[in-house]
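Input (structure):
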């Protein structure tokens, strides 16, 4: 009963402030529990999270009251299974396969990152979330999609607006109003690009989504793709930028580990990236709906229930990671869960990880004496999307 009382008293504000102590208590006392504040069953342990994500016959991606579909329309790549998901994934995957990403990501990200680094060098200090990580992430994703003419402030505004809808499990009308307005703006803005690409394909991700796997002379309908494009814009802009911010916050808070990375960027930046993603998952959940009543974690989840498979909690499961709240780039305990499990495993994971590695490497090469500004230490926010709200840094007068 005490565990039930704990779950009943969880608030959205407490989750936004810091979900990790809440998840730790749930893993100990109620690993599967209904949380009324967000109208979701929380699944918190690694083995159960993996089971939910890999059992589409019991835990369907088709969710009856999805905030993603409410905000972006349907079908979306996140909220479908079967042939519809296969069709959507078949259009997205070609641009983001490992070999394809290796051919273009380096030049793309460098060309975007270097001008921001030049601006930071001129100022002598920076707020790295806005001045660098989010900027690089949003522009890299947009350019890979084929959205060449949309500027960074617009893309960041889109991200924050779309996010209000995607995380609106509590159905807050103010959040929904913001998301609906941005969703309509995104659709109207990118429609001409999609119409052009339908007539004249190129090598952009949007073009592949329209044409790949389709009979000659036909394309996937724009209305069919648009909700998923909004999902990809949100996740693809958010995950690399926010993940990189958390990674750097971890390094700057652990000087010994930062020195390890600086001494061997090629080998230790990827380790730091993987540990940062484990430590603070930029996207916290895979949401599902039960197709029937099912027993999990010692309780019965009813049929038709919305379930949050908390990849963020799974990545701090004590049964898999020693002292899981500690940031430690020298771990050797297996993969994190930040990119999810099952056939909904993040389609852009290779591109996202490569972006993070490049963004962190280029930054540390340019400013090896980077340090946090005293009194402005990073504060993290969010449970569905989590990252430092700001990351104030300074460096020496003569950065390399």
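Output (sequence):
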């Amino acid at each position: 009963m005490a565990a039930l009382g704990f779950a009943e008293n969880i608030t959205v504000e407490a989750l936004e402030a810091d979900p990790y102590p809440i998840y730790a208590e749930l893993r100990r006392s109620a690993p599967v529990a209904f949380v009324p504040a967000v109208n979701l069953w929380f699944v918190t342990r690694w083995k159960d999270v993996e089971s939910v994500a890999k059992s589409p016959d019991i835990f369907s991606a088709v969710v009856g009251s999805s905030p993603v579909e409410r905000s972006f329309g349907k079908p979306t790549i996140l909220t479908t299974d079967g042939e519809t998901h296969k069709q959507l994934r078949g259009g997205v995957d070609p641009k983001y396969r490992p070999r394809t990403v290796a051919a273009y990501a380096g030049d793309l990200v460098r060309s975007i990152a270097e001008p921001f680094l030049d601006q930071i060098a001129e100022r002598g200090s920076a707020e790295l979330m806005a001045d660098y990580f989010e900027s690089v992430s949003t522009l890299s994703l947009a350019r890979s999609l084929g959205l060449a003419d949309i500027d960074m402030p617009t893309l960041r505004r889109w991200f924050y607006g779309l996010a209000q809808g995607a995380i609106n499990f509590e159905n807050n009308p103010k959040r929904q109003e913001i998301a609906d307005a941005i969703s309509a703006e995104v659709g109207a803005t990118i429609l001409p690009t999609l119409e052009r690409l339908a007539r004249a394909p190129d090598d952009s991700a949007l073009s592949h989504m329209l044409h790949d796997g389709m009979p000659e002379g036909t394309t996937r309908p724009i209305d069919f793709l648009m909700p998923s494009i909004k999902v990809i814009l949100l996740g693809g802009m958010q995950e690399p930028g926010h993940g990189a911010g958390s990674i750097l916050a971890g390094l700057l808070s652990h000087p010994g580990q930062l020195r390890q990375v600086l001494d061997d960027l090629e080998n230790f930046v990827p380790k730091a990236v993987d540990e940062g993603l484990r430590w603070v998952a930029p996207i916290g959940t895979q949401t599902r709906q039960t197709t029937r009543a099912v027993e999990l974690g010692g309780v019965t989840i009813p049929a038709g229930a919305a379930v949050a498979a908390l990849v963020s909690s799974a990545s701090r499961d004590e049964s898999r990671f020693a002292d899981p709240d500690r940031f430690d780039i020298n771990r050797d305990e297996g993969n994190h869960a930040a990119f999810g499990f099952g056939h909904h495993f993040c389609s852009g994971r290779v591109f996202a990880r490569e972006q993070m590695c490049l963004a962190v490497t280029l930054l540390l090469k340019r400013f090896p004496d980077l340090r946090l500004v005293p009194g402005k230490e990073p504060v993290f926010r969010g449970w569905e999307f989590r990252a430092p709200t700001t990351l104030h840094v300074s460096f020496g007068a003569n950065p390399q």
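Notes: Residues 289 and 305 are 5 Å apart (CA to CA). The mean pLDDT is 92.
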